[in-house]
Amino acid sequence: MSAFPASEGWSAWPAPAKLNLFLRITGRRADGYHTLQTVFRLLDWGDVVHLRPRRDGVIARVGAGADGVAEADDLMVRAAEVLRNETNCSEGVDIGIEKNIPMGGGFGGGSSDAATVLVVLDRLWGLNLGVDRLAALGLQLGADVPIFVRGHNAWAEGVGDLLTAIDLPPAWYAVASPGVHATTAALFQAHDLTRNAAPAKIAGFLSGISPSGGVLDNAFEPVLRRREPAVEALFTALASIGTPRLTGSGSGCFVEFADRESAETALASLPPGLNAWLARGADRSPLLDAMEVFNAGASPSG
Ligand SMILES: C[C@@](CO)(OP(=O)(O)O)[C@H](O)COP(=O)(O)OP(=O)(O)OC[C@H]1O[C@@H](n2ccc(N)nc2=O)[C@H](O)[C@@H]1O
Ligand SMILES: Nc1ncnc2c1ncn2[C@@H]1O[C@H](COP(=O)(O)OP(=O)(O)O)[C@@H](O)[C@H]1O
């Protein structure tokens, strides 16, 4: 039985993972944040956030939470608090999580969990702030939150917050984690990080410039491969099935395939013991689909 049953007032909501199909850093702002260009691809795989509104104004995490994340630091709890402070509402909520996305993997798990809380509580608390205000609130929690609030595959610039929705072709991914926790803040400070890449053009990306053309690179890849033998070993193993790429600031990697069968065959050929799995690229966030079902009157089950 679910730890968060519908019979006890819980509802379940997807918090999808993302991949950065490429990532280049074009500069650094006066406040230390880096300007970058990236393409976010949402996946049909991720965490499940459980919510149960409460009328006593208490925001509480229920159950285990993400490994080693204190309740007060949990981005889900902070998202609910930000929303309540912004609106001066007196609502509360119990929050639970089924954590599937490896932490510190560049898959955006914490950011996606927070975005799901923002989007769903906006509805459950009857606030109706709308997507633009929710995305701006999300940005206070992390540069990756707005993409998950908006829920569309996107070309991103600025600090990752200036988003242009784009359509991406269907794709399947062999996704892998070397089990290394890559700390985003520390990697942005790395002395050997390239921070002055020439800006890429969105048209070039969309017309399908190949990885060997140098456009689909990730600025963190050489840094992480030099620092972390487990990441280097994973790249070597994945090179047997295609062109591995790093997502975000790592340490997760992926190889893209045009169809499910090719991805499955490739995964099956990898050496045993590798932490690799299959994920489908989404056309849009599964959270948007769940909200649509909910708004049509059928609440997802606990
Ligand atoms: C690198 C990316 C690419 O999608 O993803 P992840 O690898 O974390 O998933 C993101 O830019 C990460 O976004 P997010 O994980 O939300 O990072 P934040 O919490 O906002 O920032 C953590 C720290 O990284 C640095 N930072 C972050 C974003 C940015 N554009 N420039 C930076 O210099 C800042 O020092 C900041 O304090
Ligand atoms: N609900 C949450 N899930 C995951 N991480 C969280 C959460 N709340 C806070 N964090 C913090 O955010 C950090 C980054 O996690 P995550 O978003 O999974 O990785 P990444 O930024 O590499 O995509 C974690 O190491 C953890 O300290």
UniProtKB/TrEMBL annotation:
Family the UniProt entry places it in? Belongs to the GHMP kinase family. IspE subfamily.
This chain's protein is named 4-diphosphocytidyl-2-C-methyl-D-erythritol kinase
Tell me yes or no: is Nucleotide-binding among this UniProt entry's keywords: yes
Pathway terms, separated by semicolons: Isoprenoid biosynthesis; isopentenyl diphosphate biosynthesis via DXP pathway; isopentenyl diphosphate from 1-deoxy-D-xylulose 5-phosphate: step 3/6
Q: Which residues form the GHMP kinase N-terminal domain?
A: 75-151
Q: Tell me which residues this entry annotates as catalytic.
A: 18, 144
GO biological process terms, semicolon-separated:
isopentenyl diphosphate biosynthetic process, methylerythritol 4-phosphate pathway; terpenoid biosynthetic process
Where ATP binds, per the record, is at 102-112
An annotated Gene Ontology molecular function: 4-(cytidine 5'-diphospho)-2-C-methyl-D-erythritol kinase activity
Record's keyword terms, sorted: ATP-binding, Isoprene biosynthesis, Kinase, Nucleotide-binding, Transferase
UniProt domain GHMP kinase C-terminal: residue ranges: 217-270
EC number(s) given by UniProt:
2.7.1.148
This molecule's function is given as:
Catalyzes the phosphorylation of the position 2 hydroxy group of 4-diphosphocytidyl-2C-methyl-D-erythritol.
Which reactions is this enzyme annotated as catalysing? 4-CDP-2-C-methyl-D-erythritol + ATP = 4-CDP-2-C-methyl-D-erythritol 2-phosphate + ADP + H(+)
Q: One Pfam family this chain carries?
A: GHMP_kinases_C
Return the InterPro entries for the record.
GHMP_kinase_C_dom (IPR013750), GHMP_kinase_C_sf (IPR036554), GHMP_kinase_N_dom (IPR006204), IspE (IPR004424), Ribosomal_Su5_D2-typ_SF (IPR020568), Ribsml_uS5_D2-typ_fold_subgr (IPR014721)
